[in-house]
Design a protein that fits this description.
Blueprint: E1 2-8, H1 13-24, E2 31-38, H2 42-52, E3 58-63, H3 72-81, E4 87-90, E5 95-97, H4 101-108, E6 113-116, E7 118-120, H5 123-126, E8 139-140, E9 149-152, H6 153-158, H7 172-182, E10 187-190, E11 196-198, H8 218-232, H9 249-252, E12 261-265, H10 269-278, E13 286-292, H11 296-307, H12 318-332, E14 338-343, E15 348-354
Parallel strand pairs: 1-2, 1-4, 2-3, 6-10, 7-11, 12-13
Antiparallel strand pairs: 4-9, 5-11, 6-9, 7-8, 13-15, 14-15
Helix pairs in contact: 1-2, 7-8
């Protein structure tokens, strides 16, 4: 028996339903799907639930974390904590699985780690309704594409699952492969045949008007974090932080009510340092923080004071402040209910946390 975990946020429902149909057509039914909706907007969340209701093998786990950084690792770990089957497969919501995929996966299942070669479809081909074998593959992925991986469940649990440092996109799948190898497990790339196709979808480009959380150098941080995992031969992670924590809806509801404290500051270096340090002193309360940029005139005045060796305020760039705040959340408060927005046009950061 295999548990297949799929993670989701705001993906086009046509693509999702194609994935579900491919799973429904499996010749071997010895599987179940845990579908983790990690913070979709209401329209997508409701559409996903309605679509999933058509398939009795799918259980939807809803996480009310909109306004937070995307964390595929936490989403996977939430499902892992609920898994009792001997094998655990990380799937991709954009995938189409050959009808014998589950049968093949079960035949390959062992104490080893197995991942599967992808065939990528072009845009127009992805919009077609065909039998798996009839699709024309645009290009084949190599062994660097690690998104669909089969694990012995207890082995993955023994290293505390996926590393929840990783947020945004990049490196998390490679990280778990590296740690499995560090643990002494054989990691095998199954490329004898194509069992998984990847549907084309538009990249989620961010508009300048978007206020959703985004760290400008997070992918590079993830990449360098992975390098350290390799160098130190790390196996077990999340040692000082609880992992796979399912969000408590009652706590997240507190984000919508009047906070106990509201703090407003300017992007001055020592004020940012102070307010981020103060977060560790909150308990059983909700705090709202607003960081509001100043105009060019005020910044110019401080630059003049600096040149004259007078006391001055060092104003940080708002993008720099944004990165500092998000890094603090990732490192110390990623399991804390929070909502974050950065309005770049207005020069305003809004953060609410429930302690």
């Amino acid at each position: 028996m295999i548990t297949i975990v799929l993670t989701y946020r705001n993906r086009e429902l046509r693509i999702v339903e194609n994935c579900f149909e491919a799973l429904a057509a499996q010749t071997n039914k010895a599987f179940k799907v845990l579908l983790v909706d990690y913070g979709s907007d209401l329209e997508f969340a409701e559409g996903l639930k309605n679509t999933a209701k058509k398939y009795n093998f799918i259980t939807v786990i809803s996480c009310p974390v909109s306004g937070q950084l995307w964390s595929k690792c936490r989403a996977i770990n939430i499902a892992l904590k609920q898994t009792e089957t001997p094998y655990f497969l990380i799937g991709d919501i954009d995938s189409l699985f050959r009808k014998d995929f589950v049968d093949k996966a079960l035949s390959l299942a062992s104490d080893k780690v197995m991942y599967f070669k992808y065939g990528f479809l072009a845009e127009e081909e992805s919009k077609q309704k065909k039998e798996f074998e009839d699709y024309t593959i645009d290009f084949l992925a190599g062994d660097e594409v690690t998104g669909t991986t089969l694990f012995p469940t207890e082995t993955l649990k023994s290293v505390n699952g996926y590393d929840e440092f990783y947020h945004g996109w990049g490196a998390e799948d490679t990280d778990i492969h590296v740690r499995m190898k560090n643990l002494g497990k054989e990691v095998i790339f199954y490329d004898q045949e194509i069992l998984v196709l990847h549907q084309w979808h538009a990249k989620a480009y961010r508009s300048k008007s978007s206020t959703s959380p985004f760290h400008s150098t997070l992918e590079r941080a993830n990449s360098n974090y992975l390098k350290i995992t390799r160098q130190t031969k790390r196996t077990t992670v999340n040692l000082n932080t609880d992992w796979g924590i399912l969000p408590d809806v009652t706590q997240y509801d507190k984000l919508t009510i009047t906070p106990d404290s509201t703090l407003k500051i300017k992007p001055i270096d020592f004020q940012i340092t102070a307010i981020l340090a103060q977060l560790k002193n909150y308990k059983n309360e909700t705090v709202s923080i607003e960081i509001i940029d100043v105009d060019k005139k005020q910044k110019s005045i401080q630059k003049v004071k600096k040149k004259l060796n007078k006391k001055y305020f060092n104003y940080l760039k708002m993008e720099e402040v944004n990165n500092l705040v998000l890094e603090t959340i990732i490192n110390s408060y990623r399991n804390t209910p929070y909502n974050y927005q950065f309005n770049r046009q207005k020069g305003q950061i809004s953060l609410t946390l429930v302690f």
